[in-house]
């Protein structure tokens, strides 16, 4: 009965449109790689789809919201937040109910969880130029990346482990020949980002020439500054506001550079990095990026500015922030990632290839959706979104902490052992060992007769030789 009424009503609408000269706009507002049909046919209920009553309710709602399809498609669309740069060991990207092992340039979508399994490490590139480094047994979920007319917005959760969140700054780097520190990832899978070896011709019998240091790192840093200069014209000083959520604290600010440690069921630690620690060239007008934190509590809306660049400790309940009493182990992460020009060269090269649309001066909403697959956020919309995210995660994470505390108390009352973890050498041991034994940029064939195969581009790419 309902089916006959529905068909009759649709025929009537079509006839009215044809004879009245009206035209239906059947062009859907589609995002890049999005299907033309807005229905999920696999999960659609036949009885609900053929229900005349439900159709009538849906029609009334759509009439009250003329742009309903735009909103519906925007909610269904999953935007690319970044791409995988490199993994040492075993890494997972959990998407939906499954996971896969990412490779170089694997897409990372909104709500994907990135994990490093065991003693594995990873570098991830985000579309605005932010670089994220995951130490062993770490997990990060990038919930969203929103492209705005005046600024961009990233919301991510640091689920566990040791994570370096390095936003892109437009400053140049100090040019020196000190060795790179995060050498665990050499050779980089992005071949063009590997340092070109400083080859010198030696005179026979001149032993002093053999003692001269090669300027490989210096040349790589100069190349990095050249790329930064090129990309600064593209980025147009457009900033990104980031909200980084940990179980017991939320950090937020424009272009933060911060190292984070989240211990499941335990304390959290964080350290803001200044210009000097990043070895940046600073002009008189340059100011350190502001970083704020928000503690837990249903009624706690206070944002506190972080001035200190010391390691800070957050208690398990998210109620207090104090200077860490013992930071000897914590500082190792900063030592490993102190000087990384090759990783940053890779960042600049990936920006040139994938990120020009992120920094446009002018946008057209439909063009951004169709060509790039992103929704455009107006300034007023972005402000409302920021306020919602702050409130939402504060309440959700507060509830999670209370539930965890109650569960822990019950376990202890039953005499059960409560599992706990602490920060240990597992987060940097392998990287430190690799740095200790790394012989910087030694040419494999230095002391041997050169072979014809070593001159082939395939062999050079395999060994990262430039």
| CATH-scheme architecture of the largest domain | Sandwich
Structural class: alpha+beta
| Shape label | globular
Tally of separate helices: 12
CATH top level assignment of the largest domain: Mainly Beta
Q: Give the C-alpha Rg.
A: 27 Å
Helix content: 25-40%
Short description:
By secondary structure, the chain is of the alpha+beta class. It is built from 12 helices and 16 strands.
How does this model look, in words?
This protein folds into two domains: 73 residues, no CATH class; 316 residues, Jelly Rolls (Sandwich). A hairpin with a 3-residue loop joins strand 6 and strand 7. The protein contains twelve helices and 16 strands. It is 32% helix and 22% strand. The radius of gyration is 27 Å and the shape is globular. About 6% of the residues have low confidence. The protein has a 16-stranded mixed beta sheet that branches. The longest helix has 35 residues. Helix 6 runs parallel beside helix 8.
């Amino acid at each position: 009965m309902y089916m006959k009424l529905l068909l009759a009503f649709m025929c009537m609408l079509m006839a009215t449109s044809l004879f009245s000269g009206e035209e239906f706009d059947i062009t859907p507002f589609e995002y890049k790689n999005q299907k033309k049909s807005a229905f999920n046919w696999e999960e659609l209920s036949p009885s609900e789809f053929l229900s005349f009553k439900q159709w009538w309710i849906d029609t009334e709602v759509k009439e009250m919201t003329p742009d309903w399809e735009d909103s519906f498609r925007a909610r269904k669309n999953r935007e690319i937040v970044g791409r995988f740069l490199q993994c040492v060991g075993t890494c997972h990207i959990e998407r939906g109910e499954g996971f896969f092992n990412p490779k170089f340039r694997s897409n990372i979508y909104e709500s994907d969880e990135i994990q490093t399994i065991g003693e594995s490490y990873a570098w991830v590139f985000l579309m605005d130029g932010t670089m994220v480094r995951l130490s062993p047994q770490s997990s990060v979920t990038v919930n969203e990346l929103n492209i705005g007319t005046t600024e961009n917005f990233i919301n991510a959760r640091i689920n566990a482990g040791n994570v370096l969140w390095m936003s892109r700054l437009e400053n140049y780097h100090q040019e020196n020949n000190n060795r790179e520190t995060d050498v665990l990832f050499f050779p980089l899978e992005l071949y063009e980002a590997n340092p070109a070896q400083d080859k010198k011709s030696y005179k026979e019998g001149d032993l002093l020439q053999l003692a001269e240091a090669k300027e490989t790192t210096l040349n790589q840093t100069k190349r990095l500054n050249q790329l930064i200069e090129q990309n600064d014209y593209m980025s147009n000083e457009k900033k990104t506001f980031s909200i980084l959520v940990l179980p017991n604290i939320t950090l937020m600010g424009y272009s933060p550079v911060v190292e984070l440690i989240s211990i499941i069921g335990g304390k959290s630690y964080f350290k803001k990095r200044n210009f000097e620690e990043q070895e940046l060239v600073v002009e008189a007008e340059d100011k350190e990026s502001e970083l704020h934190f928000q503690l837990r509590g249903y009624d706690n809306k206070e944002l506190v500015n972080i001035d200190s660049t010391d390691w800070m400790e957050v208690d398990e309940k998210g109620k207090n922030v104090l200077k860490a009493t013992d930071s000897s182990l914590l500082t190792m992460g900063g030592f490993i990632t102190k000087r990384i020009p090759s990783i940053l060269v890779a960042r600049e090269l990936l920006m040139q290839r994938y990120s020009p649309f992120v920094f446009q001066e002018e946008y057209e909403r439909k063009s951004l959706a169709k060509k790039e697959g992103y929704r455009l956020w107006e300034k007023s919309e972005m402000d409302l979104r920021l306020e919602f995210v702050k409130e939402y995660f504060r309440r959700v994470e507060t509830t999670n902490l209370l539930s965890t505390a109650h569960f822990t108390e019950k376990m202890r009352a039953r005499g059960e052992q409560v599992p706990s973890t602490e920060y240990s050498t597992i987060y940097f041991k392998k990287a430190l060992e690799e740095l200790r034994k790394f012989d910087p940029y030694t040419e494999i064939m230095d002391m041997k007769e050169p072979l014809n195969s070593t001159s082939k581009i395939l062999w050079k790419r395999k060994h990262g030789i430039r």
